[in-house]
Each structure stands twice: as structure tokens, then as C-alpha cells.
Design a protein that fits this description.
elongated; twelve-stranded mixed β-sheet; 2 domains; Immunoglobulin-like; five-stranded antiparallel β-sheet
């Protein structure tokens, strides 16, 4: 069950609101969404205290991004005492030489409608800003954060500094192809879909490494790994997920399963990033399937009338949609090769030695804000990123 701490807003007039009329009801509702939010488990700790405000940490920042592509930075603060009147936050994106690329000081709902000098003791503040690197920039970046007032920066209490530097994304470069994960796909025999994976073929099948955060590539609280098998007729896949709070309200095929706990497989038989499939299975065993002619085309969800003829079974280690603690679930599924035909590609069955591209994802809505992990982290804010799909190698 997701939990949030509800913290009432102080009366803005009592703090000397810059706008005499104060925020509107709609603006107050927008502010409230950013207060009392419990940080996610994978928060990157910072622990820098600026007078009465502590920057507890930041949510994982993308390891890489495309030139000119926006990315979000999410700060989490705890307030023990008010900052001086007029105090404001600054956030700068810097290049390798420390030169300014982007000034994002006023970005985001919090900085616009509920700036730091209005933060009240006891508040937890979630500050979300969006930064777009210059399209001409390539290379590493640094994010510099701090507070300022009347042209002077507020000091960090634990040392002789007035700011905190964080690793920003590398712009315009991605890890080389050799860094992509590779999984051997062995032949299957005697597979019965029940979610238990107790057949010898599954026990002997190679496993992926533990999935990692889709943006940062870091290990998270969500544990997941996958295996793949094949025979003359089907591709089989299994994903074992550790999850202490199983959540999914969806019951109908092709419901928006990605809005809750789910396992996803993106499958690209050609390896060219075209005519790829998206297959999803929820902990309830509900299926979503679609295919795309190329990256995210057609929008918004591909050819949703596509039928992969996928069958799936789920073994739950817990109970859905209640407050009791769970252990996780296992998805076991098979897809007939004959169903992989799309509008532009014929159905095909691999031969020994063939290589397909694929990626696995797990979304966990969790007790806190949702977390997404991947076999091959795309390192950009989009699951639909074929250049980062891993490699499935079919063996006899």
C-alpha cells in the first residue's frame, strides 16, 4: 500500500506572501502534492544542511541523455527551522570545465509557488525541476545546488562550502555495444506453464544479472531476474520478482498494466529497432501486448489490436491489493513464433546462433513512489530505446 504523510500548508499571509492575494485553490493543490512525500528507498543520500533545511537526497539521475533531451531532477528536503526571508534555491548544470550550461533556479512548481523562505518547520518538501541541456553540448555534466539570499549563498553547515555538486548525466554518449548484456537461450523441454519454474530446463537455464534502475543503472530495493528458453514452436520467458507490496487493479486484457506492478518484455527479432513487440504480464496474470513499426510509432501505444497469442501463468508469493506484507511473484509465459508476424515483418523462428535484441523491465508501484528496473538499463527516461536492448543468443 502506498503511504504519504499529509502535512498541512501554513497560511501564506502569515509568512508575508509576495503576492498579496496568495495562491489560488488550484495552486495550493499543486503545492500540496509536493509536501509530505516520503522519499523512495533508492534515494541517493546527500545529507547537506543549509541553516534549517537539510537536502536529504536526490532521486536517481539519468546516467546519460541525448543532446537537448530534458531530464528531471528530484530533490527531497526536511525543514527544521525557516530559512531567511528572500532565500531561494539555485540549480546549475555545468560542463566539464565548470562553465554554466543551464540556469534552472526558478524551475518547477515548488520554486514558483512555494519557495524556500516559506517552508515551515516539520515540512518534507519534494522539489522537481526539469533541465534541458543545450542541443550542441556533448560530454559529462555536473549539477550544482544551493540556496542564496540577497546575492550571497548560504553556507553548508558541515564544511567550508556554499553548494553541493552532484553527478549529472553524460550528454550525447551511451555505453558501447560491448557493454550490453547477453543471455544464452537454451532449448526447452517439458515446460508446463504454472509459474513455478520447477522443470529441469528452467533450473539449468542461464539467468540475467539482477535488474538495475532504468535511469541510473544502480542497484535498487526491487529484485528481479529473468530466464529465456525456446523450442520449435515457442519462445518462453520467466521473470522472478521480489516485491513486498503487490498491487494491480487491472483485470481486463490490454488494460494499462504499466500503471501498476508489472513485468514487461520488449522483443526486437530483427535487431534493427523496427517492428518490435511489447509484452506485459501483471501479477494478476493479465496480459497486454502491442507492436511498434519503429520507436513509439504509432503513438500512443502502438498497434494495440495486435495479438501475440501469448499465454502466461503467475505464481504469487503473497496476496494482491491488501496491507499484508508480500514476498513477490513469478511470471512464466510463452509466445508462439508463428504469432510474431507484424504488418511489416513475417513471422520467423530463430536458428541456433541467431541473435535477437530484447529488454526486460519490472515496474513496482510499491509502498513509496514507483520504481522501474531493467535487465539492460536504457539510461534515458524511456523504455522504448532499442539501442540499449540486450542480446538473446539462441543455442541448440
Amino acid at each position: 500500500m502506498r503511504r504519504a504523510v499529509v502535512v498541512p500548508l501554513l497560511l501564506f499571509a502569515a509568512l508575508g506572501c509576495d503576492r498579496c492575494a496568495g495562491p489560488t485553490a488550484h495552486e495550493r493543490a499543486r503545492i500540496q502534492e509536493h509536501l509530505g512525500v516520503e522519499p523512495p528507498a533508492e534515494l541517493v543520500p546527500v545529507g547537506a544542511r543549509f541553516e534549517g533545511v537539510t537536502l536529504v537526497g536526490v532521486e536517481p539521475i539519468p546516467a546519460a541523455t541525448a543532446p537537448g533531451a530534458p531530464f528531471d531532477v528530484v530533490f527531497h528536503f526536511e525543514v527544521s527551522s525557516p530559512l531567511p526571508k528572500g532565500a531561494r534555491a539555485f540549480t546549475h548544470l555545468l560542463d566539464e570545465q565548470g562553465q554554466l550550461l543551464v540556469n534552472a533556479d526558478g524551475a518547477g512548481v515548488v520554486r514558483e509557488l512555494h519557495p524556500p523562505d516559506r517552508w515551515a518547520p516539520g515540512e518534507r518538501v519534494r522539489d522537481v525541476i526539469t533541465i534541458r541541456p543545450p542541443p550542441e553540448h556533448r560530454g559529462p555534466t555536473t549539477l550544482r545546488f544551493g540556496f542564496h539570499r540577497d546575492g550571497a549563498r548560504l553556507p553548508v553547515e558541515d564544511g567550508d562550502r556554499t553548494h553541493v555538486d552532484l553527478r549529472g548525466p553524460r550528454v550525447g554518449t551511451l555505453p558501447p555495444r560491448d557493454a550490453l548484456p547477453r543471455l544464452e537461450v537454451h532449448r526447452a523441454e517439458g515446460i508446463v506453464l504454472d509459474g513455478r519454474l520447477d522443470e529441469p530446463a528452467w533450473k539449468d537455464a542461464p539467468s540475467t544479472q539482477a535488474f538495475r534502475h532504468t535511469l541510473s543503472g544502480a542497484v535498487t530495493r526491487v529484485s528481479a531476474e529473468a530466464k529465456v528458453l525456446w523450442d520449435d514452436e515457442h519462445l518462453y520467458f520467466a521473470v522472478v520478482v521480489g516485491d513486498d507490496d503487490l498491487r494491480t487493479p487491472f483485470t481486463q486484457r490490454d488494460d494499462p498494466l504499466w500503471e501498476a506492478d508489472v513485468v514487461e518484455l520488449f522483443l526486437d527479432p530483427s535487431g534493427r529497432g523496427v517492428d518490435y513487440l511489447e509484452l506485459q504480464v501483471s501479477p494478476r496474470g493479465v496480459i497486454f501486448d502491442t507492436h511498434y513499426e519503429r520507436r513509439r510509432v504509432p503513438r500512443p501505444i502502438g498497434h494495440a489490436d495486435f495479438d501475440s497469442r501469448m499465454e502466461a501463468a503467475v505464481d504469487l508469493r503473497g496476496t494482491l491489493d491488501d496491507s499484508r506484507e508480500d514476498q513477490g511473484y513469478t511470471v512464466e509465459a510463452k509466445v508462439p513464433f508463428a504469432a510474431l508476424a507484424t504488418r511489416n515483418a513475417r513471422a520467423t523462428r530463430p536458428s541456433p546462433g541467431d541473435e535477437w535484441r530484447a529488454n526486460f523491465y519490472v515496474i513496482d508501484v510499491g509502498k513509496r513512489r514507483g520504481t522501474a528496473v531493467a535487465w539492460s538499463p536504457p539510461l534515458v527516461p524511456d523504455f522504448h530505446f532499442p539501442p540499449r536492448f540486450g542480446r538473446l543468443v539462441f543455442l541448440d
